[in-house]
């Protein structure tokens, strides 16, 4: 499976066509495909348009879609970008690391 930590899409939303969607996910097909783009199909989180799966094979991406429908529980309230981490959380983590290093 082509699952990975959600990442920001490579852009070009106008180059993609929605082929399947539900409350949490969008499945899209690239209008041009290879060699213009490294993959033809992708699945995005609807809430923030972050990509979680991609493939050049429709059957493979359909299996990924079915897996997500049964097993995935989106945790959209949790931050996934390092730049979006709250500074208080960063300082708490840093303080904890420093305590361990000092002892």
Keywords:
5 strands; 103 residues; 24% strand; elongated; 2 helices; alpha+beta
- Quick one: how many beta strands? 5
Count of helical regions:
2
> Which bin fits the share of residues in helices?
25-40%
Order of helices and strands: EEEEEHH
Residue ranges: pLDDT <50 for 5 or more in a row? none
Shape: elongated
Strand order of the largest sheet: 1-5-4-3-2
Q: What does this entry look like structurally?
A:
This protein has a five-stranded antiparallel beta sheet with strand order 1-5-4-3-2. With 103 residues, it is an alpha+beta fold. It has helices at 58-71, 87-102, and strands spanning 7-8, 16-21, 25-30, 41-45, 50-55. The longest helix is centred in the last third of the chain and has 16 residues, at 87-102. It has a domain at 7-78.
């Amino acid at each position: 499976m082509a699952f990975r930590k959600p990442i920001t899409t490579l852009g070009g939303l106008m180059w993609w066509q929605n082929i399947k969607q539900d409350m949490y996910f969008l499945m899209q097909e690239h209008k041009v495909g290879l060699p213009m783009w490294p993959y033809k199909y992708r699945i995005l989180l609807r809430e923030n348009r972050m990509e979680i799966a991609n493939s050049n094979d429709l059957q493979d991406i359909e299996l990924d879609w079915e897996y997500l429908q049964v097993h995935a529980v989106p945790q959209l309230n949790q931050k996934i970008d390092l730049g979006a981490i709250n500074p208080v959380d960063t300082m708490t983590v840093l303080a904890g690391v420093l305590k361990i290093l000092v002892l």
